[in-house]
Design a protein that fits this description.
It is a single chain. With about 325 residues, the chain is of the alpha/beta class. The chain has 2 domains: about 120 residues, ornithine cyclodeaminase, domain 1 (2-Layer Sandwich); about 180 residues, NAD(P)-binding Rossmann-like Domain (Rossmann fold, 3-Layer(aba) Sandwich). About 35% of the residues lie in helices and about 25% in strands. A hairpin with a 5-residue loop joins strand 5 and strand 6. It starts with a strand and ends with a helix. This is Ornithine cyclodeaminase family protein. Belongs to the ornithine cyclodeaminase/mu-crystallin family. It comes from Roseibium algae.
Length: about 325
Protein backbone atom coordinates (compact mmCIF):
# COMPACT_ATOMS: atom_id res chain seq x y z
CA UNK A 1 0.00 0.00 0.00
CA UNK A 2 1.24 3.45 -0.93
CA UNK A 3 1.89 5.74 2.05
CA UNK A 4 2.05 9.47 1.33
CA UNK A 5 3.52 11.79 3.95
CA UNK A 6 2.50 15.41 4.35
CA UNK A 7 5.27 16.60 2.00
CA UNK A 8 4.57 13.86 -0.54
CA UNK A 9 0.85 14.67 -0.50
CA UNK A 10 1.59 18.36 -1.05
CA UNK A 11 3.84 17.62 -4.03
CA UNK A 12 1.24 15.28 -5.53
CA UNK A 13 -1.48 17.96 -5.41
CA UNK A 14 -0.37 21.09 -7.31
CA UNK A 15 -3.21 23.57 -7.17
CA UNK A 16 -3.76 23.95 -10.91
CA UNK A 17 -4.26 20.19 -11.37
CA UNK A 18 -6.23 19.81 -8.14
CA UNK A 19 -8.68 22.58 -9.05
CA UNK A 20 -9.26 20.91 -12.42
CA UNK A 21 -9.72 17.53 -10.70
CA UNK A 22 -12.40 18.98 -8.42
CA UNK A 23 -14.11 20.67 -11.36
CA UNK A 24 -14.21 17.34 -13.21
CA UNK A 25 -15.55 15.45 -10.18
CA UNK A 26 -18.30 18.00 -9.57
CA UNK A 27 -19.18 17.70 -13.24
CA UNK A 28 -19.42 13.89 -13.27
CA UNK A 29 -20.39 13.27 -9.64
CA UNK A 30 -19.84 10.30 -7.33
CA UNK A 31 -21.63 8.41 -4.56
CA UNK A 32 -21.42 10.46 -1.37
CA UNK A 33 -23.37 9.40 1.72
CA UNK A 34 -24.06 11.92 4.46
CA UNK A 35 -20.95 12.23 6.57
CA UNK A 36 -20.85 11.20 10.19
CA UNK A 37 -20.46 14.20 12.49
CA UNK A 38 -19.77 13.68 16.19
CA UNK A 39 -19.11 16.28 18.88
CA UNK A 40 -16.52 15.24 21.45
CA UNK A 41 -16.07 16.90 24.83
CA UNK A 42 -12.53 17.93 25.78
CA UNK A 43 -12.36 18.91 29.49
CA UNK A 44 -11.38 22.54 29.95
CA UNK A 45 -11.42 23.29 26.20
CA UNK A 46 -13.94 23.90 23.40
CA UNK A 47 -15.68 20.77 22.14
CA UNK A 48 -13.87 18.83 19.45
CA UNK A 49 -15.42 17.19 16.38
CA UNK A 50 -14.87 13.84 14.67
CA UNK A 51 -15.88 13.52 11.02
CA UNK A 52 -16.12 10.35 8.91
CA UNK A 53 -16.42 11.13 5.20
CA UNK A 54 -16.94 8.26 2.72
CA UNK A 55 -17.30 8.52 -1.07
CA UNK A 56 -16.81 6.29 -4.11
CA UNK A 57 -16.87 6.16 -7.88
CA UNK A 58 -18.61 2.83 -8.58
CA UNK A 59 -16.17 0.25 -9.91
CA UNK A 60 -13.20 2.63 -9.73
CA UNK A 61 -12.21 3.99 -6.32
CA UNK A 62 -13.56 3.96 -2.75
CA UNK A 63 -12.31 6.36 -0.09
CA UNK A 64 -12.94 7.46 3.46
CA UNK A 65 -11.44 10.27 5.54
CA UNK A 66 -11.28 10.35 9.33
CA UNK A 67 -10.91 13.87 10.72
CA UNK A 68 -10.42 15.16 14.25
CA UNK A 69 -11.02 18.91 14.64
CA UNK A 70 -9.50 20.12 17.92
CA UNK A 71 -9.98 23.90 18.50
CA UNK A 72 -7.89 23.73 21.67
CA UNK A 73 -4.80 22.90 19.64
CA UNK A 74 -4.31 26.58 18.83
CA UNK A 75 -3.10 27.12 22.40
CA UNK A 76 -0.68 24.22 22.00
CA UNK A 77 0.79 25.51 18.77
CA UNK A 78 -0.63 22.52 16.89
CA UNK A 79 -2.86 22.32 13.80
CA UNK A 80 -6.58 22.30 14.61
CA UNK A 81 -7.18 19.44 12.16
CA UNK A 82 -5.67 15.94 12.18
CA UNK A 83 -6.77 13.50 9.50
CA UNK A 84 -5.91 10.49 7.35
CA UNK A 85 -7.42 9.28 4.08
CA UNK A 86 -7.73 5.64 3.00
CA UNK A 87 -8.16 5.00 -0.74
CA UNK A 88 -9.21 1.56 -2.00
CA UNK A 89 -9.84 -0.18 -5.31
CA UNK A 90 -13.51 0.09 -6.26
CA UNK A 91 -13.71 -3.48 -7.61
CA UNK A 92 -11.43 -5.63 -5.47
CA UNK A 93 -11.57 -3.60 -2.26
CA UNK A 94 -7.77 -3.68 -2.09
CA UNK A 95 -6.44 -0.84 0.03
CA UNK A 96 -4.30 1.24 -2.28
CA UNK A 97 -3.06 4.26 -0.37
CA UNK A 98 -2.97 6.03 2.97
CA UNK A 99 -2.75 9.76 2.27
CA UNK A 100 -1.97 12.48 4.76
CA UNK A 101 -5.45 13.76 5.52
CA UNK A 102 -4.46 17.10 6.99
CA UNK A 103 -2.59 18.15 3.86
CA UNK A 104 -5.27 16.68 1.60
CA UNK A 105 -7.98 18.56 3.52
CA UNK A 106 -6.14 21.88 3.48
CA UNK A 107 -5.34 21.70 -0.21
CA UNK A 108 -8.70 20.41 -1.44
CA UNK A 109 -10.53 22.99 0.71
CA UNK A 110 -8.44 25.80 -0.73
CA UNK A 111 -8.86 24.35 -4.22
CA UNK A 112 -12.66 24.30 -3.82
CA UNK A 113 -12.56 27.99 -2.88
CA UNK A 114 -10.40 28.73 -5.91
CA UNK A 115 -12.71 26.71 -8.15
CA UNK A 116 -15.61 28.85 -6.94
CA UNK A 117 -13.52 32.00 -7.48
CA UNK A 118 -12.86 30.88 -11.06
CA UNK A 119 -16.62 31.16 -11.64
CA UNK A 120 -17.44 34.00 -9.24
CA UNK A 121 -14.52 36.41 -8.74
CA UNK A 122 -13.83 39.22 -11.23
CA UNK A 123 -11.31 38.18 -13.84
CA UNK A 124 -9.02 41.07 -12.83
CA UNK A 125 -9.21 40.42 -9.07
CA UNK A 126 -5.74 41.18 -7.69
CA UNK A 127 -6.05 42.00 -3.97
CA UNK A 128 -6.76 39.03 -1.72
CA UNK A 129 -7.58 39.46 1.97
CA UNK A 130 -7.23 36.37 4.16
CA UNK A 131 -9.17 36.38 7.44
CA UNK A 132 -7.59 33.87 9.80
CA UNK A 133 -4.06 32.64 10.42
CA UNK A 134 -4.51 28.87 10.60
CA UNK A 135 -3.02 26.15 8.41
CA UNK A 136 -5.54 26.70 5.64
CA UNK A 137 -4.70 30.39 5.18
CA UNK A 138 -1.43 29.91 3.30
CA UNK A 139 -3.07 27.32 1.03
CA UNK A 140 -5.83 29.76 0.14
CA UNK A 141 -3.19 32.14 -1.21
CA UNK A 142 -1.65 29.53 -3.50
CA UNK A 143 -5.01 28.27 -4.68
CA UNK A 144 -6.42 31.71 -5.52
CA UNK A 145 -3.18 32.65 -7.28
CA UNK A 146 -3.76 29.65 -9.56
CA UNK A 147 -7.01 31.15 -10.88
CA UNK A 148 -6.71 34.94 -10.52
CA UNK A 149 -3.90 37.52 -11.04
CA UNK A 150 -3.27 38.09 -7.32
CA UNK A 151 -0.53 40.68 -6.72
CA UNK A 152 -1.25 41.65 -3.10
CA UNK A 153 -2.31 39.61 -0.07
CA UNK A 154 -3.37 41.03 3.30
CA UNK A 155 -3.67 38.80 6.36
CA UNK A 156 -5.84 39.61 9.36
CA UNK A 157 -5.98 37.61 12.57
CA UNK A 158 -6.78 38.16 16.22
CA UNK A 159 -3.02 37.86 16.81
CA UNK A 160 -1.19 40.44 14.69
CA UNK A 161 2.13 38.61 15.09
CA UNK A 162 0.61 35.51 13.47
CA UNK A 163 -0.76 37.65 10.62
CA UNK A 164 2.69 39.12 10.03
CA UNK A 165 4.23 35.63 10.08
CA UNK A 166 1.69 34.43 7.50
CA UNK A 167 2.53 37.40 5.28
CA UNK A 168 6.24 36.58 5.46
CA UNK A 169 5.51 32.95 4.58
CA UNK A 170 3.34 33.95 1.62
CA UNK A 171 6.08 36.22 0.30
CA UNK A 172 8.63 33.43 0.63
CA UNK A 173 6.48 30.71 -0.94
CA UNK A 174 4.74 32.62 -3.70
CA UNK A 175 6.77 35.79 -4.27
CA UNK A 176 3.66 37.91 -3.80
CA UNK A 177 3.47 41.24 -1.96
CA UNK A 178 1.98 40.41 1.45
CA UNK A 179 1.28 42.19 4.72
CA UNK A 180 -0.29 41.68 8.10
CA UNK A 181 -3.07 44.16 8.96
CA UNK A 182 -4.86 45.23 12.13
CA UNK A 183 -7.94 46.99 10.72
CA UNK A 184 -10.22 44.36 9.20
CA UNK A 185 -12.81 46.87 8.01
CA UNK A 186 -10.26 48.81 5.97
CA UNK A 187 -8.75 45.61 4.54
CA UNK A 188 -12.12 44.16 3.52
CA UNK A 189 -13.18 47.47 2.00
CA UNK A 190 -10.14 47.43 -0.31
CA UNK A 191 -10.30 43.74 -1.25
CA UNK A 192 -11.25 42.12 -4.53
CA UNK A 193 -11.49 38.70 -2.83
CA UNK A 194 -12.06 38.14 0.89
CA UNK A 195 -11.36 34.59 2.06
CA UNK A 196 -12.24 33.70 5.67
CA UNK A 197 -11.06 30.51 7.35
CA UNK A 198 -11.84 30.77 11.05
CA UNK A 199 -13.76 29.04 13.83
CA UNK A 200 -15.59 32.25 14.70
CA UNK A 201 -18.95 32.15 16.47
CA UNK A 202 -19.72 35.78 15.58
CA UNK A 203 -19.67 37.59 12.20
CA UNK A 204 -16.32 39.04 11.19
CA UNK A 205 -17.14 40.25 7.67
CA UNK A 206 -19.82 42.93 7.41
CA UNK A 207 -21.80 43.56 4.27
CA UNK A 208 -21.53 47.32 4.74
CA UNK A 209 -17.77 47.03 4.22
CA UNK A 210 -17.96 45.32 0.82
CA UNK A 211 -17.30 47.36 -2.30
CA UNK A 212 -19.07 46.52 -5.59
CA UNK A 213 -17.49 43.57 -7.36
CA UNK A 214 -16.08 41.89 -4.25
CA UNK A 215 -16.07 38.11 -4.00
CA UNK A 216 -16.46 36.71 -0.46
CA UNK A 217 -15.22 33.19 0.25
CA UNK A 218 -16.36 31.67 3.56
CA UNK A 219 -14.41 28.53 4.42
CA UNK A 220 -14.61 28.26 8.20
CA UNK A 221 -17.65 28.30 10.54
CA UNK A 222 -18.56 24.73 9.65
CA UNK A 223 -21.22 24.33 12.38
CA UNK A 224 -24.69 25.95 12.53
CA UNK A 225 -23.60 27.87 15.63
CA UNK A 226 -20.61 29.45 13.87
CA UNK A 227 -20.64 32.55 11.65
CA UNK A 228 -18.13 34.56 9.59
CA UNK A 229 -20.47 36.97 7.75
CA UNK A 230 -23.35 39.14 8.94
CA UNK A 231 -26.90 39.34 7.60
CA UNK A 232 -26.09 42.40 5.49
CA UNK A 233 -23.40 40.47 3.61
CA UNK A 234 -26.03 37.87 2.77
CA UNK A 235 -28.50 40.56 1.69
CA UNK A 236 -26.16 42.42 -0.66
CA UNK A 237 -24.52 39.36 -2.26
CA UNK A 238 -25.43 36.72 -4.79
CA UNK A 239 -25.09 33.58 -2.66
CA UNK A 240 -23.44 30.35 -3.84
CA UNK A 241 -22.47 27.17 -1.96
CA UNK A 242 -20.29 24.12 -2.46
CA UNK A 243 -23.21 21.71 -1.91
CA UNK A 244 -26.79 22.67 -1.14
CA UNK A 245 -27.38 19.75 1.22
CA UNK A 246 -24.24 20.44 3.22
CA UNK A 247 -24.43 24.21 3.55
CA UNK A 248 -28.14 24.42 4.32
CA UNK A 249 -27.69 22.05 7.26
CA UNK A 250 -24.18 22.68 8.58
CA UNK A 251 -22.73 26.13 7.89
CA UNK A 252 -24.00 28.92 10.14
CA UNK A 253 -23.52 31.53 7.41
CA UNK A 254 -26.36 29.84 5.51
CA UNK A 255 -28.28 28.04 8.27
CA UNK A 256 -28.81 31.13 10.45
CA UNK A 257 -30.04 33.46 7.65
CA UNK A 258 -32.38 30.69 6.47
CA UNK A 259 -33.79 30.32 9.97
CA UNK A 260 -34.30 34.07 10.42
CA UNK A 261 -35.80 34.64 6.97
CA UNK A 262 -32.95 36.83 5.74
CA UNK A 263 -32.25 34.17 3.11
CA UNK A 264 -34.62 31.81 1.30
CA UNK A 265 -33.59 28.51 -0.24
CA UNK A 266 -34.49 29.95 -3.64
CA UNK A 267 -32.01 32.79 -3.05
CA UNK A 268 -29.06 30.37 -3.27
CA UNK A 269 -28.08 30.85 -6.89
CA UNK A 270 -26.11 27.63 -7.49
CA UNK A 271 -23.73 25.10 -6.00
CA UNK A 272 -20.48 23.76 -7.43
CA UNK A 273 -22.32 20.94 -9.22
CA UNK A 274 -24.39 23.47 -11.15
CA UNK A 275 -21.45 25.77 -11.82
CA UNK A 276 -19.26 22.92 -13.07
CA UNK A 277 -22.05 21.60 -15.29
CA UNK A 278 -22.76 25.00 -16.83
CA UNK A 279 -26.24 25.24 -15.31
CA UNK A 280 -25.42 28.68 -13.92
CA UNK A 281 -22.96 31.14 -15.41
CA UNK A 282 -21.66 32.37 -12.06
CA UNK A 283 -20.78 36.08 -11.87
CA UNK A 284 -22.99 38.14 -14.17
CA UNK A 285 -21.22 41.53 -14.10
CA UNK A 286 -18.21 43.32 -12.58
CA UNK A 287 -20.23 45.19 -9.94
CA UNK A 288 -21.98 42.12 -8.53
CA UNK A 289 -20.99 41.10 -5.01
CA UNK A 290 -20.72 37.32 -4.81
CA UNK A 291 -20.55 35.15 -1.69
CA UNK A 292 -19.49 31.51 -1.63
CA UNK A 293 -19.95 29.30 1.42
CA UNK A 294 -18.29 25.89 1.73
CA UNK A 295 -18.49 23.23 4.42
CA UNK A 296 -16.50 20.61 2.53
CA UNK A 297 -17.62 17.45 0.80
CA UNK A 298 -16.28 13.91 0.61
CA UNK A 299 -16.33 14.28 -3.20
CA UNK A 300 -13.50 16.81 -2.90
CA UNK A 301 -11.38 14.48 -0.78
CA UNK A 302 -11.94 11.60 -3.17
CA UNK A 303 -10.96 13.70 -6.19
CA UNK A 304 -7.80 14.83 -4.43
CA UNK A 305 -6.92 11.34 -3.20
CA UNK A 306 -7.29 9.87 -6.69
CA UNK A 307 -5.08 12.61 -8.14
CA UNK A 308 -2.45 12.09 -5.42
CA UNK A 309 -2.45 8.31 -5.89
CA UNK A 310 -2.32 8.35 -9.67
CA UNK A 311 0.34 11.09 -9.73
CA UNK A 312 2.53 9.18 -7.27
CA UNK A 313 2.23 5.90 -9.18
CA UNK A 314 3.57 7.36 -12.44
Amino acid sequence: MLLLSQDETRKALPFDRLIDALDAMFMTGCEMPVRHHHDMAVPGEPDATMLLMPAWVPGAYVGVKIVNVMPGNSDRGLPAISAEYLLSDGRSGEMLAMINGGELTARRTAAASALAARYLARSDASHLVIVGTGRLSINLVGAHMAVRPITKVSFWGRNRAKADAMAAEAQSLYGVEAEGVSDLEVAVGAADIVSAATLSLEPLIHGAWLKPGTHVDLVGAFKPTMRESDDEAIRVASVFVDTRNGCTKEGGDIVQPLASGVLALSDVKADLYELARGLHIGRTNDSEITLFKSVGAALEDLAGAILAYESSKR
